[in-house]
Amino acid sequence: MPANTASLPKELNLRQTIEGMPLIFNPAAAEGLQAVIQFNVSGKEPGRYYLKIDGGNCTFHTGVAPAATLTIDTPSEVWLQVSNGQLSGQDALFKGLYKANGDIGTLIKMGEIFKSPEDFTIYDNSAPLQGQLFPLFQHKSHAEISNSPAGVRPAGPIPLSGMGWMTVFFAIWTFYWICFDISSLNPWIGSAIPLALMTAVIIYRVIYNSPVWIEVASWCFFLLALALAPVMRLPVFLAWGSITGSLFMAILWLVSLAPLIKLPFCAEYSKWGYVRKLWSNSMFIHPNLAISLVWGWQFIIASSFGIAARLYPDLFIPFTAVRYLLIIPAAIFTARYQKGALDRKFPDIDKTMAALRSWGYAGLAVAAAILLLVWLVLPLPQ
Question: What are the helix (H) ranges across 209-259?
Fold first, then answer.
């Protein structure tokens, strides 16, 4: 994880500038304030965005607000200069460089409401929050959750970072894949042990934090594997259990790209160590979308080599080796792409993320087709 002395990139585009304002939001200066600030931006970087301030919390949104209390019409170049301190906001308003309508009092206070402290950083080095048992029942408000620190790692006595927990997650799955690749092993080993390990992870999560949905979905898969392999002795699952698991993993990665899912797969683990408000920022979401997309397709391609390995026993070793070695380029991409992720700028980040999601939906269709092919069409390997 990067050193925790860095802040946001010095040169932000207009979208990043407005979207970054909730990161430096000062709840104390906005006490009791309820406001919706609409930005209608023209110039080199046109767009429409708004900030909603309510209950001591500030959130960023794209589009036109249903009922704005303050509307700012500005060229992008002007607002960037105002945000960077190169131009006085009041002087620019008096000179007609931008227009403001509505609650001018909120406009006057914006310098205090959105004031970056000298020690501002997007990284969080605070101690992990020790949640109570079943934290879902604590009934915390959205503002309390958003303004609370995230902690350098998930809560609990085990000093593992978020990415460390992701390694544990993959170790459990790798054990499952290898066990089902070795047909001579008792299927109880390949299904019961991963189920027990994932159960332990989820119980730990429930006690100290909250389980990641990916972990819960994996637990359900291992439970199903236990029923289909050693209990029911279903031939198709005994033969294709490893491939089914890889395709299920691909589906998990790609489903996490959907807008209804709060965070992409890898963001559920990489978010630790960053301030909570960054978790919903496109500068954080976009690289995690790209990384999750690559891993989803990696598992689809790896599954294809796994199928070939079972259909052509003479080539089982080389095909299986390629299947698992495909993790290396995906890991290299992950390591390189996350470096400088906050410095990347896109003309239309929403369009870019929509394109990534489209590739994710295509991957879901391919994974589902391969899964049907394996279970309904292909012969059982000898």
Answer: 213-226, 235-255
Within 10 A of 382 (CB to CB), how many other CB atoms are there? 7
**Residue linked to tokens 């700028």:** 345
Taking a C-beta distance cutoff of 8 angstroms, is the pair 295, 330 a contact?
yes
List alpha helices for 95-161, DSSP H. Answer: 104-113, 142-147
Establish if 235 belongs to a structural domain: yes
What's the pLDDT score for residue 6?
A: 47
Q: Based on the fold, state whether residues 105 and 214 are members of the same structural domain.
A: no
If asked whether residues 235 and 192 sit together in one domain, one would say: yes
Domain boundary among 113, 131, 151: 113
Could you tell me the residue range of the domain that residue 276 belongs to?
142-377
pTM beyond 0.85: yes
Q: How far apart are CA 51 and CA 66, in angstroms?
A: 12
For the cut 60, the answer to whether the pLDDT of residue 373 exceeds it is: yes
Quick: pLDDT tens for 26-67.
999 998 899 999 999 999 999 999 999 998 899 999 999 999
Domain match, 322 and 233 both: yes
Please report where in the chains the tokens 């930005």 appear, as a residue.
Answer: 39
- Determine the pLDDT at residue 5: 37
Joined tokens for residue 193: 């042990």
Max alpha carbon distance in the chain (Å)?
81
- In angstroms, how far is CA 80 from the centroid of its own chain? 28
